[in-house]
Automatic annotation (TrEMBL):
It comes from Deinococcus ruber. GO terms for molecular function: D-arabinono-1,4-lactone oxidase activity; FAD binding; L-gulono-1,4-lactone dehydrogenase activity. InterPro entries: ALO_C, FAD-bd_PCMH, FAD-bd_PCMH-like_sf, FAD-bd_PCMH_sub1, FAD-bd_PCMH_sub2, FAD_lactone_oxidase-like, Oxid_FAD_bind_N, Vanillyl_alc_oxidase_C-sub2. The keyword Iron does not apply. The keyword Manganese does not apply. This is FAD-binding protein. Keywords: Oxidoreductase. GO terms for cellular component: membrane. Residues 1-166 form the FAD-binding PCMH-type domain. It holds the Pfam family FAD_binding_4.
C-alpha cells in the first residue's frame, strides 16, 4: 500500500528524466518486494518495469551492462546462454537487480558478499534530471556510498556487473539438524558448502531443514546419508513445513545451471510463501551461536505468527550502508504471516534479544527499533548524509523513512 499521489510507468530513460525534473518528491519501484516504507512517497511513484531490459555482455572485459528494469531470473538465463554467470544470487530470482543492490540484499555463503559487490559501474538519474555515471575509477568513495543507497540518491537506470564463466550447482537438503550441532560447530556447518541455509520455526532446538548448494566440479557423487547428525531428505522440500515443493528449485543433488540452483524458488512460481511479511537482521558472525540460542528461547512467542526463519552467512564488504560493511555476518530472516500490526508488536522482543550482538536490519524489511539504535553501528552514516545532501540538496528523493532513518539530527 503506497501513499503516492501519482503513479508512472515510463517506457524510456528520457520519459523518466522528464518525470523527475517536474516532480518535487519522487521514488522508484523495482519488483515491489520491500516490506518497509523505504520506497514510499506522497508525491510521484515510478515503476521501472517498462524501463530498458537490455542485457549486453562484454566478453573481453567479463562484464554485463543491464537496464534498470532487469530481474535476476531473466539476467541469469541470458548470461548462461552466452556462457557467463554471476557468483551468487538471492533466494528469489524475481527481484530486480537494481532494487536488490540498492537495499543490500544478499545470497548465502562464507565467501559471498551482498549482491551489490558484483557492481562495477552505476548509472544514476539525479534530482536535476541528469545522468551521473559512478565507478571506482571515477571516485571510489562516492561509489561505495552510492551502490547500496536505498534509493536516497536518485534512480538507477543501468548497472554494469562483473561476470565469470558459467557453471553448474547442485543442492542437497538435510532434515532435523540439532541446535547444539550448529551452535557448537557453527563455522564447520556453514562452510560445508558454497551456500548453506538453515531453516527453523524456533521449536524443539532444531533446524528442520538445511539446504547445501555446491558448485559442481567433475563427477557428481552421491551425497552422504547423514551430515552433522541430520538426515538426507528423500524428496524435494519447501522451506515452510507442509508446503508443496513445486515452487522450489530442484534438489536431490541434481546438477543444473547456477541461476536455477542458487535461488530457493523458481522464476515462474509464487516466491517464498506468497502472502507474508518479512524481517531480517544481520550481525557479526562470531556472535551467531549466542544469538541463535537467544532466539530459540523466544520460540513460544514467535510460533503463532511465524511461517519460517532462515539462517545464512554473508561475507564482509565496504559499502557504507551495507549491514555487512566491515565484517563477516550471520543473517537471520523471518517470514511472518500477513498480519503486520501483530508482527510489529512482536519485533521489539526480537530486536531487544539481538541488540547485544550488534545486529543491523535489512533496510527493505520491517523493523521497529528507533533508528538511532541501529545507526551507531554504521560508521559511514554521517558521510552518507553528506552525500544525500550533495546529490539531492532539495530532498526530491527523500521520504518519511529516509528522513527518520538518516536525516534526523537526533541520530547523529
Amino acid at each position: 500500500m503506497y501513499s503516492a499521489a501519482r503513479f508512472h510507468r515510463p517506457g524510456s530513460v528520457e520519459e523518466l528524466q522528464e518525470i523527475v525534473r517536474r516532480a518535487s518528491s519522487v521514488k522508484a519501484l523495482g519488483t515491489r518486494h520491500s516490506f518497509s516504507s523505504v520506497a514510499d512517497t506522497e508525491g510521484d511513484l515510478v515503476s521501472l518495469e517498462r524501463l530498458s531490459r537490455t542485457i549486453t555482455v562484454n566478453a573481453d572485459q567479463q562484464t554485463v551492462r543491464i537496464g534498470g528494469g532487469v530481474r535476476y531470473g531473466e539476467l541469469g538465463a541470458a548470461l548462461h546462454a552466452q556462457g557467463f554467470a554471476l557468483p551468487n544470487l538471492a533466494s528469489l530470482p524475481q527481484l530486480s537487480v537494481a532494487g536488490a543492490c540498492a537495499t543490500g540484499t544478499h545470497g548465502s555463503g562464507d565467501a559471498s558478499p551482498v549482491l551489490a559487490s558484483a557492481v562495477t559501474r552505476l548509472e544514476l538519474l539525479t534530482a536535476s534530471g541528469d545522468l551521473l555515471e559512478l565507478s571506482p575509477e571515477h571516485g571510489a568513495e562516492m561509489f561505495r556510498g552510492a551502490v547500496v543507497s536505498v534509493g536516497a540518491l536518485g534512480i538507477v537506470t543501468a548497472l554494469t556487473l562483473a561476470v565469470e564463466p558459467t557453471y553448474e550447482v547442485r543442492q542437497d537438503v538435510y532434515e532435523h539438524l540439532a541446535l547444539e550441532q550448529v551452535a557448537g560447530q557453527f563455522d564447520e556447518v556453514m562452510s560445508a558448502a558454497d551456500s548453506v541455509s538453515l531453516f527453523t520455526t524456533w521449536q524443539n532446538d532444531t533446524f528442520h531443514q538445511a539446504w547445501l548448494k555446491r558448485r559442481v566440479h567433475g563427477a557428481v557423487l552421491a551425497a552422504p546419508r547423514t551430515w552433522f547428525g541430520a538426515t538426507l531428505a528423500e524428496q524435494d522440500l519447501h522451506p515452510v513445513p507442509g508446503a508443496s515443493a513445486t515452487p522450489c528449485t530442484p534438489q536431490g543433488g541434481r546438477p543444473g545451471p547456477w541461476f536455477e540452483r542458487w535461488p530457493h524458488f523458481r522464476m515462474g512460481q509464487t516466491p517464498s510463501s506468497g502472502e507474508e511479511v518479512q524481517s531480517e537482521y544481520l550481525f557479526p558472525r562470531q556472535h551467531a551461536p549466542a544469538a541463535l540460542r537467544a532466539l530459540f528461547a523466544l520460540g513460544p512467542h514467535l510460533a503463532p505468527l511465524l511461517l519460517v526463519s532462515e539462517v545464512r552467512t554473508v561475507a564482509a564488504d565496504s559499502f557504507w550502508l551495507s549491514p555487512c560493511s566491515g565484517h563477516d555476518c550471520a543473517a537471520v530472516h523471518f517470514t511472518w504471516r500477513q498480519d503486520e500490526p501483530a508482527v510489529r508488536a512482536l519485533l521489539p522482543l526480537i530486536e531487544s534479544a539481538l541488540t547485544p550482538f550488534g545486529a543491523r536490519p535489512h533496510w527493505g524489511k520491517v523493523f521497529v527499533t528507533p533508528p538511532q539504535r541501529w545507526l551507531g553501528r554504521q560508521s559511514r552514516l554521517a558521510d552518507f548524509r553528506d552525500l544525500m545532501q550533495t546529490l539531492d540538496p532539495d530532498g526530491k528523493f527523500q521520504n518519511a523513512f529516509l528522513k527518520a532513518t538518516f536525516l534526523d539530527q537526533n541520530n547523529f
